[in-house]
Amino acid sequence: MTGPVRSGPVRRDVKPEPEPVGTGSVQFRSSLLTFLVNRFFFRFFFTGSVRCSGFPVPMPTPSNNNNQCVVCSKFNMEEGMAENQISPPHPIHRPPPSSQLPLSPTSISSSVKIILDILIRTTPQQIEPALASTGIIPTTEVVVEVLKLSYDYPFSAIKFFRWAGLAHKHSAHAWNLMVDLLGRNRLFESMWDAIRSMRQEKTLSLAAFASAFGNYCASGSFDDALMTFQVMDKYGIPNDVVAANSLLSAMCGENGCVLRALDFLETMKSKPEFGPDGDSFAILLEGLEKEGDAAKAKTTFGEMVVRVGWMPANVAAYDAFLMTLVRGEQVEEALKFLIVMKKNSCLPGEGNKFYKSISTSFAMAKGKGRQAKGKLCFHPLT
């Protein structure tokens, strides 16, 4: 549910910035007052939510009586920003999963190319009339393809999404992309508007919340990510261990943030409804491998064995743990754990990075004459 990787924010059809207007000028005060009034008006009357301490509090969503896409009434503030040449916050940069990798040029249909050209080259005020003039009826596939390629143009994507919603109801896939697109561009209020609309359209699933977890964590808003997990059951999505693991994965995906994930593990251990399973520990051990924290990896591995036991299928956990020790220059320690794993019928995957790494360590040791001293006296593959 993620989109293409960007190298930086993209501005299109933006006029050169005017000279700064003095904060004491009538023009500046009038513009600021108008923006603040509009912001409050649209948030309260159109989005159905207010914010408390920076986090959206659910309120009843207005009913939709004209069969128009629910999101149509919910992006007014962002449209106003676009039409007044106000840039979105600096977008979040994180790699997309394989399911959302950019399409190859040869796979882009002619309809998608026409629409993308309009989104890139047309001013926000003229996008919807320009789209209507094409005569294109956006199919579900076209909407998905356009959204995948529109992450650098969030305001234009919102306009397109509204226009396409007039033809038919959006698919769950399209909604998930829109949620992720808004989150990637730090438009979190509108992201929540979309989530509420998905609930009303009965297209909401864990995928939307997983996207929110990832984008909040990528922006450093770990408390908001945790709060999202805590309120998701109010939107009809259970905060079970699968959802908790999704949050763990989002936390561990950010450099230096595994400690936050370990704190959340303590919460999981006290909650039977989403207590940690083998996947939970595998995610944490992979995060600790990335950070090279052998001490915490040993503690976490021990907790895993005590809590969920030895699980031969949990190969990822054993791989990550042993690699953390090897990279921490604790090869002998890794070999001791390997022997214990073998006794419990739990081994890392055949031909994986651990075996390759340990073989390299043996070769280096032999070259230095260390093997002759008995420090490394057997090959792990035997």
Automatic annotation (TrEMBL):
PPR repeats lie at residues 314-348. Residues 88-99 have a biased composition (Pro residues). InterPro entries: PPR/CCM1_RNA-binding, PPR_rpt, TPR-like_helical_dom_sf. PROSITE patterns: PPR. It comes from the Eukaryota. Residues 1-23, 83-103 are annotated as: Disordered. This is Pentacotripeptide-repeat region of PRORP domain-containing protein. It comes from Prunus persica (Peach).
